[in-house]
Amino acid sequence: MADKGKKKRYALVLDSKKCMNCKACVVACKAENGVPVGKFRNWIDEEKRGSYPRLLMTFDPGQCMQCENPSCVRVCPTGASWQRPDGIVLINYSECIGCRYCMIACPYDARYFREDLGVVDKCTFCVQRVDRGQLPACVETCPSKVRVFGDLDDPNGELQDLLSTRRYLVKKPETGNGPQLYYLL
Amino acid sequence: MERTLMDRRTFVQVTASGAAAAALASQLGCLKHFEKGKGGTEARELVVPTTCEVCPNKCSVLAVVDDGVIHKLNPNPESPRSRGMLCARGNAAVKQVYDPDRLKQPLIRAGARGEGKWRPVSWEEAWDYTAKKLSEIKSKYGPQGTVWSSTEGFQEVFFKNCGLAFGSPNIVRHPTLCLASVNLAYSATFGTVPAFDLVNADYVIMSGANRFEAIIIPDTMDLIGSVMLKKAKLVYLDPRFTVTASKADTWFPIRPGTDMAFILGMLNVIVGQGIYDKDFVAGYTTGFDKLQEHVQKYTPDWAEKETGIPAKEIIRVAHEFAAAAPRACYYSGRRSSWYQNDFQMRRAQAILNAVVGNWDREGGMVPNASIPMGEYLFMPWDDPTASRVDEIDKTFPLAAKGDGAYLKLRENVLSGQPYPVKGWMVYKQDPMNALPEQAKTLKMIDQMDFVAVIDFQMSDTAWYADVILPESHYLERTDPMEMMPGIWPAIVYRQQVVKPVYNTKPNLEIIQGLAKRLQISDYFDYTIDDWVKAQAKDIPVQNAFDYLQKHGVVVTPGFPKYGKTLKGDYRFITKSGKVELSSDRLQESGYDPLPVYKPPTEPQAGQFRMILGRRAYYTHANNTNNPWLHEFDPQNHLWVNPEPAQRMGIRTGDLLEVSSRAGTVRIKAHVTDEIRPDCVFMLHGFGKHSRWQKLAYDNGACDAQVLETSWDQVSGNAAFHETFVTIRKV
Amino acid sequence: MKTIEWGILIVNYLFLGGLSAGIFFVSALATYLQEDGQPAYPRIARYGAMMAPWPVALGSFLLIFDLGNWYRFYKLFLHFRWESPMSIGSWLLLVFTGITFAAFYAWLPEEARHRLFAWLPKRLAFLKRFDLDLSSWRRPLAMLGFPFSIGVGIYTGVLLGAVQSRPFWNTNLVAQMFLFSALSTGTAALILALSINRKSLDFKQIRFLYTLDICFITLEFFIVLPYLIHGELSVRAVQEALKLILGGPYTVAFWLFFMGMGLLLPLFVELWEMKPVLLARATMHHNKVLAAGAAFLVLTGGYLLRYIFVYAGQMSSFR
Ligand SMILES: Nc1nc2c(c(=O)[nH]1)N[C@H]1C(S)=C(S)[C@@H](COP(=O)(O)OP(=O)(O)OC[C@H]3O[C@@H](n4cnc5c(=O)[nH]c(N)nc54)[C@H](O)[C@@H]3O)O[C@H]1N2
Ligand SMILES: Nc1nc2c(c(=O)[nH]1)N[C@H]1C(S)=C(S)[C@@H](COP(=O)(O)OP(=O)(O)OC[C@H]3O[C@@H](n4cnc5c(=O)[nH]c(N)nc54)[C@H](O)[C@@H]3O)O[C@H]1N2
Ligand code: SF4
Ligand code: SF4
Ligand code: SF4
Ligand code: SF4
Ligand code: SF4
Ligand SMILES: [Mo]
């Protein structure tokens, strides 16, 4: 990317209220990243409450949290799971022995096993796109623009803008993983 | 979401086909970018702007091609209509191109109809055979002995023209399954069908227009933004708790078929209390006095009894609506194939909108704008001499003649009156699923001497056809440009992204091969390039053709524009030149000049009303077989409210038998609070007959088998929500 | 967890690894303890040395078989990642397996060793020079093996206990529970071996094993208890995770089969058999069938413990 010298910290801010459960993000990811049928790098959780006619239904997109302190990387015996300086957690497929310890260690159940390749896989923040200055596929395609991707360390960036003016939460902070998906309230 | 194990079989199947293997390789190829230390990609990639075909929205796409294989479809941010999005279905289109189950070459039926035995043939043989059959029918019954049915699409024009040039008046298109009643109702009122400025509206009321699942661009994106950011209030009426209902400020689970009562109740308040837009009514409308008198009896208390919505809520909504006007809309909806009085219900909406003066103003209804575009001038043919078999002139005098009245057409074909029809040409349509009462559609096929289908996959209709002419997928062909009118008009272009993977052809070439053999090729004496270059001529950008090839979409500055029709002595395209609250033209044709409420038929004890609706990741019945979409809903279920379910001892997963006068299906129950106790619902597109749709074949149930035949009295639009079913645990 | 990723193969692996560790530990102890310059419990020592390598070898094979890419297992030994229990464990297991095989060799009776080498085909005849008497290595190997056997026993628990995202596992008690369970299953395996042997019983050696097993089971029991108590007093996520065994899908397996039949019943049997010794310092009266039965129950209990922990743990999660 253009300003190479500056340190970056990629993160995603989500405004789940706007999510319509349209699954565009899920299919876009599938197409972009060749995710096998039956496996998902991202997903939409549904919450339903109440009884007719007083009902509530909310949707909540999930995927790898690109943790600051990723337990998946920590437990990996071969170093196949690793983290880039910009925070993106990746898997080096040729080093992965398929022990799935990382899957078990991920508090967000963000990883899946690829039977066809015998390796573990997960959301990569679409590094192949991001490194070319494009947005991740799920972010770009979302009709209601639930997802905002950017550099957390950019003081003038959209993420800082949103996070300093809106209330938000992160998921399962108690695991100490330091998730980098911020959910607006 | 359930995350289940991958089906190894699917994987093997995909790799079995050469082209598909290449696609897979390119998708697996992306893994290599993540190896430690490596970054970026080689620039073998090509980006081709084109236009999505998976539903009528026509979103702008940037197709990324990697070594001749489509890797990914990205949204084209230049389109002011699709607003930089591509929905799940649009994204999944790649999968269709490389689907091992798609149609790969022309086929002629080898066994009995529906038996699924096919003989792969050359294009020459397929054309010869089709032309021979059509000519036989023509010599026996005249050209009117054929019906040409199709659904909108950029290449539909060639198909339609072929039917007309062949001499058949029986062109029948999808509007009478879809939006004929709403179009006719708004035209009857304003002389045109307006768009709704949802991005600027402060207050929106929707009757069952499930905009957050039934995607319409740019409405869906505009509305979700303004509703969730609290810029706009949304009042939503639907017997089902849809995604739209879940986002609305108010959801009324209205008694089905009573929307008109709600609207009339609102009109009673707004007109009666004088909170309408007096200037607009005085300046631009006719018939207000009649309306005033007409709505007097439709009090909120009366409306409460009909709709089940409390009178004080109706009064509240009426006040809020009038106060927010003109930045308020009672949204028209699109699929208005609901009830027998649908036209009049939509008329009531149009009138309600008119009296609050939300016409041609920011945040209200806005007449569609357009961008000039050229036209290819082809040689004209003589108009068909015979009258239409659906007798639309007599039966639906106000309806759009060119589109026909589908269900009436089917009745007449079945009865052989006024004349026999023995040939059926189908383009980009699946009548077996799109029409109610599938048994009748099957009968219609049965009594045909010849049926040919142009599709890219083995639809249920194709399954019963005699000849299948496989069209290239939209990503494999160049289509005519299209002007998309609206508040943000745009011209979009669909150009070839990859060469056809299999032995398929674009529709124009299919039609040309046929026309040659029918001796009408003079009328199709052009190439797609001639056609689009002629269209590009008048487009107000430099080198429009090159521009569209590069950008895929043309947008011109100056939109949105408001108020053009409010200036000087603008004449509305109605008989009176004004907005017609009361319509003389309707009266002259024997219809109510003002919407008169007729209560819906009541279900009898043990009966449920069956209603329809979309899901965001399927288009109609046509992509339940796409593995990337199918996995979200591996089967359809019958939604039943817990109250009747408990009464009948039905639990989720129980197998039910669902019967109506039209037919019986078996389907599993989904007991849910998200539907009224007097209604049931099932998703469209399952229980397929076509074995080439492996995922949807005989899986779940087909709604078309139970839906009964019924139509709107004025427009002839199918009335899909008039079916009552009984359910039984088996 | 939305899917169970570690299945029965991993259960077997954890069980077999622990079993070897336990057998080796007891055998090493028997080698180490001497009476008049001779091993005090020679049969235990020898049986243990003969038995110890096989479960762990089989277990490691199963682990490798469970990998998505089994042929890449060597990559485990191209890295040492101190943060990863699996990395540490693999190294531990490698060294431990080596030691067990060395001890096996050192304990092989001389004629068996000769016979083994006699089988060698001609081309491998040069290997014959390894036909050495290593009986003097027995004690040093036992001493070297102690820490590794304990390490392997602990590691099978740490592998789970170190996963901070699964509240069911995430307590240091799991490591100890697995260690004592390993030692107790190892002891039980030896009791079983000794009791099904046709040779007449040596009460001294059986008493030694019983004493050990009673200690191990008791210790295990007093780790399971605080595990439950701690868990119940811990944060919500842990409480919810414990529901899996306290009124959830694994309740019966845990209480009836593990706690009841795998822990308390054999403890009771062993105590009953030792009663004369404990109370009157008389020679115990020993029933082979009862002993074999108790040992079998301990082994099943140990297996169930791994099973329940592997499965229930994966189902647990923070909310
Ligand atoms: N039960 C029920 N019936 C309904 C509806 C409902 O909701 N429920 N909705 C109604 C409405 S609103 C509508 S608009 C109609 C739609 O009815 P249809 O137009 O029949 O619906 P689709 O499923 O979109 O398209 C039909 C066929 O077009 C094919 N096709 C798609 N793209 C191409 C192409 O590029 N070339 C060719 N040659 N073929 C192509 C598909 O493979 C499919 O077989 O259905 C109506 N009928
Ligand atoms: N994802 C997706 N988007 C699409 C399409 C698609 O197939 N898939 N198709 C496109 C096409 S062709 C069309 S026509 C449009 C259709 O878009 P819409 O006009 O929004 O049509 P439906 O989704 O069929 O929604 C009809 C809703 O009306 C409700 N309903 C039924 N009876 C009543 C009633 O009596 N009163 C009220 N108030 N509500 C009632 C139903 O429960 C259902 O939720 O969608 C377009 N967009
Ligand atoms: S694309 Fe956006 S709106 Fe659709 S499901 Fe994903 S996050 Fe939700
Ligand atoms: S969410 Fe899971 S997979 Fe992603 S970085 Fe965090 S621990 Fe690793
Ligand atoms: S499965 Fe692969 S990435 Fe995960 S821990 Fe094992 S080696 Fe590392
Ligand atoms: S960022 Fe990329 S890899 Fe991650 S979920 Fe979105 S599309 Fe998939
Ligand atoms: S809404 Fe979806 S399917 Fe329809 S045209 Fe747009 S991208 Fe294609
Ligand atoms: Mo439609």
Distance between the termini of chain A: 32 Å
Count of distinct structural domains of chain A: 1
Q: Kindly report the spatial arrangement of strands forming the biggest sheet of chain B.
A: 5-4-17-16-15-6-7
Query: How many β-strand stretches of chain A?
Result: 10
The whole-angstrom Rg of chain A is: 17 Å
Per the principal axes of the C-alpha atoms, what is the gross shape of chain A? globular
Uncertain runs of chain B are 1-42
Question: Your description of this structure?
Answer:
The complex is a heterotrimer of chains A (185), B (730) and C (319). Chain A is of the alpha+beta class and 185 residues long. Helix content of chain A is 20%, strand content 26%. Chain A has helices at residues 24-33, 71-75, 101-105, 127-130, 137-141, 158-165; strands at residues 10-14, 42-51, 54-63, 81-83, 89-91, 112-114, 119-121, 147-151, 168-169, 181-184. Among the domains of chain B are: 2-97, N-terminal domain of TfIIb; 194-367, Dimethylsulfoxide Reductase, domain 2; 608-729, Barwin-like endoglucanases. Chain B contains 26 helices and 27 strands. In chain B, helix 10 (259-272) packs parallel to helix 15 (342-355) and helix 13 (300-307) packs across helix 14. The longest helix of chain B has 19 residues, at 123-141. Mean pLDDT of chain B is 94; it is low at 1-42. Chain C is mainly α and 319 residues long. Chain C has one domain (8-315): Formate dehydrogenase/DMSO reductase domain (Formate dehydrogenase/DMSO reductase fold). Chain C is built from 11 helices and 2 strands. Chains A and B meet through helix 1, strand 2, strand 3 and helix 5 of A and helix 1, helix 2, strand 3, helix 3 and helix 8 of B. One ligand MGD binds at residues 53, 151, 153, 174, 177-178, 335, 337, 427-430, 434, 454-457, 459, 471, 474, 612, 619-622, 684, 703-704, 707, 720 of chain B. One iron/sulfur cluster (SF4) binds at residues 28-29, 32-33, 41-42, 63, 123-126, 136-138 of chain A.
